[in-house]
């Protein structure tokens, strides 16, 4: 099964440094097939028979063992990622894919947290929650966005990591290049 691995908070500053060639080698050595990485922000695609939850946990363990880092890891199947893109609830307004973010969550948020996030939206920003993904359009960037500050922080109550639309689309294309299904 083709899957996408998303590491939270790597290579953003001096902490949590993980070289992508080393990550590829680690995952390949662990028996995962077709391992490829994208960008330096902790994105990988691979094939394996584990379900996404077990895959994320195994990757977290491997990273801790090899690099000594406690990195949160999320995984989605190729088909789940394709559904994220097919939904595209903000595609009609999100004209710059680098300012269109998808936050991937370990589990759905409760209604109270979703309401709090909605209250942080400063128009023309937009926000849509669908299952374990949060779609956010930040036309003026994320620097002063209260919504982005909350989405990127640890106060969501679940493990989460975000990628811009360009990266999400590229990861699906990369997963589609892997053999198998």
Task: Describe the 3D structure.
This protein is an alpha+beta fold. It folds into two domains: 2-80 and 171-177, 2-Layer Sandwich (Alpha-Beta Plaits), CATH 3.30.70; 84-164. Helices cover 36% and strands 24% of the residues. It contains six helices and eight strands. It has helices at residues 20-29, 52-67, 78-87, 111-119, 146-152, 165-177; strands at 2-7, 33-38, 43-47, 73-77, 100-105, 126-130, 133-137, 160-164. The strands form two sheets. A four-stranded antiparallel beta sheet has the order 2-3-1-4, sandwiched between helices. A hairpin with a 2-residue loop joins β6 (126-130) and β7 (133-137). α3 (78-87) packs antiparallel against α6. The longest helix is centred in the N-terminal third of the chain and has 16 residues, at 52-67. The chain is globular. The chain starts with a strand and ends with a helix. The mean pLDDT is 94.
List keywords for this structure.
4-stranded antiparallel sheet, 181 residues, alpha+beta, globular, single chain, 8 strands, 24% strand, Alpha-Beta Plaits
Summarize the structure.
This protein is an alpha+beta fold and 181 residues long. The protein has helices at 20-29, 52-67, 78-87, 111-119, 146-152, 165-177; strands spanning 2-7, 33-38, 43-47, 73-77, 100-105, 126-130, 133-137, 160-164.
CATH architecture of the largest domain: 2-Layer Sandwich
End-to-end gap: 5 Å
CATH-derived topology of the largest domain = Alpha-Beta Plaits
Strand content: 15-25%
Could you name the CATH class of the largest domain? Alpha Beta
User: Secondary-structure element order, as H and E?
Assistant: EHEEHEHEHEEHEH
Give the tally of structural domains.
2
Task: Output the number of helix runs.
Answer: 6
On the 0 to 100 scale, the average pLDDT is 94
How much helical structure, as a percent, in the residues? 25-40%
- Describe the global form: globular
| Uncertain segments | none
What's the name of the CATH homologous superfamily of the largest domain? Answer: SP0830-like domains
Question: Based on helices, strands and strand pairing, what is the structural class?
Answer: alpha+beta
Number of strands: 8
The biggest beta sheet is recorded as: 4 strands, antiparallel
- Major sheet strand order: 2-3-1-4
Radius of gyration: 16 Å
């Amino acid at each position: 099964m083709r899957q996408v691995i998303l590491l939270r908070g790597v290579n953003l500053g001096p902490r949590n440094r993980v070289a992508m060639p080393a990550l590829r080698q680690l995952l390949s050595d662990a028996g995962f097939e077709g391992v490829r990485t994208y960008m330096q922000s902790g994105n990988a695609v691979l094939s394996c028979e584990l379900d996404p939850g077990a895959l994320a946990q195994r990757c977290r363990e491997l990273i801790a063992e090899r690099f000594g880092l406690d990195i949160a890891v999320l995984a989605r199947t190729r088909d789940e990622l394709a559904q994220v893109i097919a939904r595209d609830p903000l595609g009609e307004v999100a004209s710059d894919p680098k300012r269109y973010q998808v936050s991937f969550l370990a589990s759905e948020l409760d209604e109270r947290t979703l309401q709090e996030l909605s209250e942080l939206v400063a128009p023309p920003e937009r926000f849509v929650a669908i299952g374990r993904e949060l779609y956010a359009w930040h036309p003026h960037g994320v620097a002063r966005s209260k919504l982005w500050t909350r989405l990127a922080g640890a106060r969501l109550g679940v493990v989460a990591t975000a990628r811009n639309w360009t990266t999400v689309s590229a990861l699906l294309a990369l997963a589609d290049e892997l053999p198998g299904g």
